[in-house]
Write a structure and sequence with these properties.
Blueprint (H helix, E strand, L loop, with lengths): L4 E7 L4 E7 L6 E7 L2 E7 L5 E8 L3 E7 L19
Antiparallel strand pairs: 1-2, 1-6, 3-4, 4-5
């Protein structure tokens, strides 16, 4: 969904660098995949075509944070009860 973004903080040899991949248009989403020591963050169209891809070595990643765009309230949200405090 437009506004979804993923923030990746990596170790760049004594310093840190921050990268962001964001869904820039309506109907696009951001997907995160992991495999063989590589983390891949991809902006994907509604039809599944990749628009932009960023690849990172998983050994260098310090933090990976997914920020979701605000979603409108759904009709069934009104009936949800908050969890009990622990």
């Amino acid at each position: 969904m437009k506004g979804d973004r993923v923030e990746v903080v990596i170790d760049a040899g004594g310093a840190t660098r921050t990268y962001e991949v964001e869904a820039t248009r309506g109907g696009r989403r951001v997907e995160v995949t992991q495999g063989r020591g590589i983390i891949e963050v991809t902006e994907v169209t509604r039809g599944g075509t990749p628009v932009r891809t960023a690849r990172f070595m998983s050994a260098r990643i310090l933090a990976l944070v997914e920020h979701l765009a605000p979603r409108p309230a759904q009709p069934d949200d009104a009936h949800a009860t908050p969890p009990a405090p622990s």
